[in-house]
Amino acid sequence: MYVSQIRAKALGFIVTYAWLMSFVQLSLFAWARSALGAQAAFYGFAAVNLLGVMVAWCLPETRGKTVDEIEVELRKK
């Protein structure tokens, strides 16, 4: 099955990407805090997190579904 063959490589890529984005976020926060002040940096990052919550709210639930079921559901839209 194609999905099983790439799962390990995809997960490795995702973990690497997550660590890279964590580094970028910490670096940006340090810069924003010194350039804009702690309060503005906090509210800016809070706004980005709120946007992420709104995107996650719009995505369909996939827990307990097979890959085939997810593909069928996404093709309907």
Unreliable stretches covering 5 or more consecutive residues: none
Please state the average pLDDT score: 89
As for the number of domains, it is 1
Helix content: over 70%
Task: Name the structural class.
Answer: mainly alpha
**Overall spatial form:** elongated
Give the ordered list of helices and strands: HHH
What fraction strand?
under 5%
Protein name: IolT2 (Myo-inositol transporter iolT2)
Pfam families: Sugar_tr (PF00083)
Transmembrane segments: 12-32, 38-59
InterPro entries: MFS_sugar_transport-like (IPR005828), MFS_trans_sf (IPR036259)
Topology:
Blueprint: H1 2-36, H2 38-58, H3 67-76
Helix pairs in contact: 1-2
Tell me what the structure shows.
The chain is an all-alpha fold and 77 residues long. 86% of the residues lie in helices and 0% in strands. Helix 1 (2-36) packs antiparallel against helix 2. The protein starts with a helix and ends with a helix. The mean pLDDT is 89.
List keywords for this structure.
77 residues, 86% helix, transmembrane, MFS_trans_sf, IolT2 (Myo-inositol transporter iolT2), mainly alpha, transmembrane transporter activity
Question: Can you summarize this structure?
Answer:
The chain is mostly helical and 77 residues long. The chain has three helices and no strands. The protein has one domain.
